[in-house]
Amino acid sequence: PGPAAMYAGLQELGVANGEDLKETLTNCTEPLKAIEQFQTENGVLLPSLQSALPFLDLHGTPRLEFHQSVFDELREKLLERVSAIALEGKVEERYKKLEDLLEKSFSLVKMPSIQPVVMCVMKHLPKVPEKKLKLVMADKDLYKACAVEVKRQIWQDNQALFGDEVSPLLKQYIQEKENILFSNDISFLQNFFSPSPKTRRQGEVVQKLTQMIGKNVKLYDMVLQFLRTLFLRTRNVHYCTLRAELLMSLHDLEITDICNVDPCHKFTWCLDACIREKFVDNKRARELQGFLDGVKKGQEQVLGDLSMILCDPFAINTLALSTIRHLQDLVGQDTLPRESPDLLLLLRMLSLGQGAWDMIDSQVFKEPKMEAELITKFLPLLMSFVVDDHMFNVDQKLPSEEKGPIPYPSAIPEAFTKFLQENRIACEVGLYYILHITKQRNKNAFLRLLPALVETFSDLAFSDIFLHLLTGNLTLLGDEFALEEFCTSLFDGFFLTAYSRKENVHRHVLRLLLHLHHKVAPAKLESLQKALEPTKQSGEAVKELYNQLTEKLELRKPSPAEVTETPSMELPLPTVPTPASR
């Protein structure tokens, strides 16, 4: 800070500063006497000190050093005292003391050495006078220096300023999610959904937002409003995840001021436990149903918030996995989907989650109507695929007769393809069924249903979350990549149908090949390398991945030296005596 900043505000308090000394010395006849007088008037006014100071002179300790150490010591004591005042006596009295102290000291707020004290006083005041807040807000450096407790008071009446602070954090959050989805580490064991909810809530962005909000309901509402607006503008479902994570982070800290006023709190808390287990058990299903059925007339707007909580990919993942598990159980119990209340509840929640964007956009708060055919036709169709697998497996074990083994059914029922194209919930459940059979290494079922993925509702089969999970599960079928038929079905029949119009698909294929290139038949790998070459329009990420793949493939090629040596083997070889066998 410049000299002026060092003495900022002293004059207003009637304390002499460097400028006064300069003026005194400029206009006096005896400078030494003037300096002595200035020291006497402005030094530490302790009679016993006057005789002790010459000792410091004898030890060569400059007066500045002495005064600085006294000053630092006093400042520490004052900071301790301010923090103590904030906790003692009656509420009105303690805040009255702090307000008086702020009134006296605020003029020195720009003086670097005193600033921490002024800031500490403001931090402990639940309501800093409006005038002072405005002065802090108007000065960039002061605003930066003040504690989050003071900033909260500024933010709650300045949504735009708060938005400027929150915006980079939200961008960072989305970027972090996308980095995980596009990570080069592909594994069926570790994927996007592996971290537990508690671990995710420890992330930097959630923690920062939690701290910025504190116990301030108004700021919490503002963040929720930002998330709703951004979700509407971008359709990016990660904002829904953040909505749930933020609420549960405040829940972990037992911030009842906020949790008690958020109507989604108990529902989110119950769903959070299901996400942790990756399964909705019967007891929690009843609880969740109770919340949905308990939405009273006139309070339907809460459905908008509940739908956003259910639209969180971690919630959808849990509901879809639970649905597949239920369907398998039903096959074993000879029960139809329509007869299972638990399954119907899962579909109801999936439907509410998938309808979040439309509901918030239209502001019509009522649960989406479930299509009967989803329950009466589509789910039984999925169950018939499970039965096909059982029958095929049993048949393989039976002694083969003259007619030879029965082939695996290859036709896809037209209804299945149609449902995947036209019904969002059917599509979501269908995709999770395909992930399920891939994880079971069921190549036959995978190849049978794969063609249905080329055209799906809203291109869901080409969404990042599905492709991230699919590429992870495909590593379990690694050995199949050596087969021409498998690669043609997977790459030509699925990935390559969309990679040129969807950059994300291009990235996911390259991720997969980076991981499995050594398993792919060489001729196929070569044609894929040609097909996947980036164009001028391709983004940096695609180019970077392609370069990484090219480098890996170069390393695998035999070196030119080896290639040239091979023909020389045809020359007559000198006879070498064979070593005696041991």
Automatic annotation (TrEMBL):
InterPro entries: COBRA1 (IPR010405). Pfam families: COBRA1 (PF06209). This is NELFB factor. One of its GO terms (biological process) is negative regulation of transcription elongation by RNA polymerase II. It comes from Upupa epops. GO terms for cellular component: NELF complex. Residues 556-582 are annotated as: Disordered. The gene is Nelfb. It comes from the Eukaryota.
